Amino acid sequence: MNNYFYPAIFHNDEKGGYWISFPDFPECFTQGETIEDSYKMAVEAIGLCIDERIKNKEALPNASSPVDYVVDMGDFSCLIEFDLAEYRRKHNSRSVKKTLSIPEWLNEAAIEKNINFSQVLQEALLQRI
């Protein structure tokens, strides 16, 4: 599964911005100056928490419902959608060297056509994934 949905509570910070908490991830907080900025920051924050838990082989919590929370006047809850594959493409794009074997004739034909082996492999892997 690559998409996750978790509720966030947007708390009015009295300066026009918001600070955001996540009931299912008590360690996770962020903030933003506008609603748009706050939502983007919420996606990044929840993404960091989800990615870290997965890397550490920790279980992810079941998502609670955004209507389960009583919020103060000026605050609200909403679902945050997080795309793990997109997050990893954005944040974990460090290149890794791989060694592979192909038939000699195929290698020569590809070199003649100036084919970028890394690009072809990446494209093929993305199609498979």
SSE inventory with pairings:
Layout: E1 3-12, E2 18-21, E3 29-32, H1 35-55, E4 76-83, H2 84-91, H3 104-112, H4 117-128
Structural class: alpha+beta
Please tell me what the overall shape is. Answer: elongated
Helix content, binned percent: 25-40%
Low-confidence stretches: none
Strand content: 15-25%
Overall pLDDT level = 90
Enumerate the strands of the largest sheet in spatial order, edge to edge or round the barrel.
3-2-1-4
Word description of this protein:
The chain has 129 residues and is α+β, with helices and mostly antiparallel strands. 39% of the residues lie in helices and 20% in strands. It is built from four helices and four strands. Strands 3-2-1-4 form a four-stranded antiparallel sheet. A hairpin with a 5-residue loop joins strand 1 and strand 2. The longest helix has 21 residues, at 35-55.
Q: Short summary of the structure?
A:
It is built from four helices and four strands; from the N terminus they run βββαβααα. The protein has helices at residues 35-55, 84-91, 104-112, 117-128; strands at residues 3-12, 18-21, 29-32, 76-83.
